[in-house]
Amino acid sequence: MNFNKAEFLASYGLASQLPDSDRPEFVFSGRSNVGKSSLINKLCNRKNLARVSATPGKTATINYYQVDDVYFVDLPGYGYAKVSAAERRRWDQLINRYFEARRSQALLLQLLDSRHAPSADDLQMMEYLRYHGIPFWVVLTKIDKLKKSQLAVLEKQFREYCAPYGCEGISPVSSEKGTGIPELQALMASFLEKDGD
Ligand SMILES: Nc1nc2c(ncn2[C@@H]2O[C@H](COP(=O)(O)OP(=O)(O)O)[C@@H](O)[C@H]2O)c(=O)[nH]1
Ligand SMILES: [Mg+2]
Predict the structure, then answer these.
(1) Is 87 exposed, middle or buried (0-12, 13-18, 19+ CB in 10 A)?
(2) Ligand 1, atom 26, residue with closest C-alpha
(3) Measured distance between the N- and C-terminal CA atoms of the chain, rounded to whole angstroms
(4) Average pLDDT per run of 10 along the chain, which is 197 residues long?
(5) CB 113 within 8 A of CB 34
(6) Which of 25, 29, 45, 192 is the most buried (most CB within 10 A)?
(7) Pocket of ligand 1 (CB under 6 A)
(8) pLDDT (tens digit, 9 = 90+) per residue, 90-111?
(9) What's the CA-to-centroid distance between 11 and ligand 2, angstroms?
């Protein structure tokens, strides 16, 4: 899988706009500001493929990128307090319709900020995944903010938190420093092979 062959395809704000699933999809899920855009950029070796924002809470859209023969699907971030009830409903509908359509998911990457225990929203998202029988892999973000000695302990704690929800494993990364990125790329490629492509 060539991560350097990446292009932005489209942003969808309405469930009715979502394209059919005609190839394997890697799905990126997480709170607003957890580092999803930064991770997509780093995986694809690009600066501005996905828009990185210091201020969370931009309009919720599902963003599609084509990377070689697969799609990267950037789900709208959750957990931003300042959204209206209407915006929240639109978010729910978008997410539900995305997961209800039978999609060829290679792997769902659930991003969690390594500096904090999973938030109530994170737990709710993982509960949603468990309920719908969607296995996922946790990506611990921003590990450059941790002390070296903290990482092993945190990784174990996150593993324990997340396992009951269907978490298949954990990858610590720093999109800023590049730590863990080659390992995550290799993991993603191995899931693609498992898929039979
Ligand atoms: N220190 C550090 N900051 C990061 C890292 N990844 C993202 N950020 C910062 O976190 C903020 C949110 O990043 P973004 O990728 O837009 O998050 P998104 O809302 O989940 O897409 C930005 O200010 C990024 O620069 C990382 O690995 N290390
Ligand atoms: Mg983003």
Answers:
(1) middle
(2) 142
(3) 11
(4) 96 87 93 95 95 72 94 91 84 90 88 96 96 95 95 95 96 98 97 72
(5) yes
(6) 29
(7) 30, 32-38, 52-54, 56, 77, 141-142, 144-145, 174-176
(8) 888 899 999 988 788 889 999 9
(9) 12
Ligand closest to Cα of 176 equals: 1
User: Residue 32 falls within a domain, yes or no?
Assistant: yes
176 assigned to some structural domain: yes
Domain assignment of residue 1, yes or no: no
Which-ligand-closest: CA of 141? 1
CATH of the domain at 13: 3.40.50.300
Range of the domain at 137: 6-196
CA angle 192, 196, 197 (to 5 degrees): 65
Q: Structural domain tally of the chain?
A: 1
Phi, psi of 72 (to 5 degrees): -100, 130
Task: Return all residues near 123 (Cβ < 8 A) that are at least 6 apart.
Answer: 165
CA distance 144 to 172: 10
Q: What is the DSSP string of 17-34?
A: GPPP--S-EEEEE-BTTS
Ramachandran sector of residue 134 (left: φ over 0; alpha: ψ -120 to 50; beta: rest): beta
